[in-house]
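G., the chain you wanted modeled:
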Amino acid sequence: MAAIKAESSPRKPAATTEILGRRLNEARWPILAAAVVAIALYAAAGVPPLAALAAFAAIAAAALLPRRMAAEPLTVADGPLIAPADPAVGRFAEALPDPVFILDRRGIVRYANAQALAAFPVRQGDPLTFRLRAPDLVAAFDRVAKGGPAERVEFSERVPTERWFAAWFSPIRGTRVSDDLIILIIEDLTERRRVEKIRVDFVANASHELRTPLASLAGFIETLLGPARDDPAARARFLKIMHEQATRMSRLVDDLLSLSRIEMKAHVRPSAEADLGAIVRHLIDALEPLAREMDVTLEADIPETPVVVTGDRDDLIQVFENLIENACKYGRSGKRVIVTVSPQREDAGATVSVRDFGPGIAQDHIPRLTERFYRVEADSSRQHRGTGLGLAIAKHTLNRHQARLLIESKPGEGANFSVIFPQGLTAPRSAEVSEYR
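Predicted structure as tokens:
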């Protein structure tokens, strides 16, 4: 952040020309009126030409004078007219922990602290609406700029992820230097809103999904306390089922909590680096016993050189573990699962593909696979101890990593789930949650 500098040398010619041009534009109507008055004095009132010309010159000069000298922005070393006239205003903005913009009454950004520049890529000297176009935000600024009281307004952004903010506009008054400035402080409400949404969703989802196993447990407990009290065989059978239902509820709660944690940090981009090849090798070794139990052969095609992406290693392990497990469970009839890691190409980023040779998925099911609790076959999912949340967790995790999930499948030909990362380690790109073929 460049320090604010008081102007101690003459203005650059370009800056002076810009200021003169702006004043001429602002004073065009008073100058035109002065010319009309001068002509009327000369033609109708018989005023001598020199006196009429002097009157016109006086009115035009008064219109061209700055209305308030302190309203002129000062220059910094590289020339843009961006800094507020009072250095204390800049120091005050830098001392605040939230993003802070100092605006003039036209909405031009005269100063932005480090937090503001990091959160909103607005160039100093540009109108604020170049970056923040929320109608409620613009309307609130207009009211304050026209002399209204300080005002707070909430607004949201949808791209690249949904985020919520609270904006506080207030005129800076008290000194001649700061009378034409307005301060904008922005508070990020995203985490607070997500926590509220997660709480509501968790209660709704948990109550719906836990109802069936809880009803089963209650029924078995009543049976054990009644007719099966003295039946050892029934007691053993019922206790086994009760254990399975309790385990299912535990998995469901764990997945719901995991999904909630991922959603809460969906707007925070990962900054670490992860090697996709190392992650897949680790998972192949870890899931080999499960594949062997299901009579499935796990095959891996991984390049020798590291395939590095920007991402959270633990989150990516969870995504690929879920995809490989699903391929083993639901594609076990094909006897093979192939996991391929591909480095970045000219037309796409690094890619991890999980291919099975099972029964495949009908096209009408594919667009809904990443919905919470959606199951192609509910009985098969429960048989494999699925909660219906695995692909929803994968979707939200990949959304945070700005990656795409491409699902390709035809009935009888197996399924291929590909995770395609952005090109480059830190390529800025809006997330496309999933594609279907």
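The two ends are 48 Å apart (CA to CA).

Shout if anything looks off.
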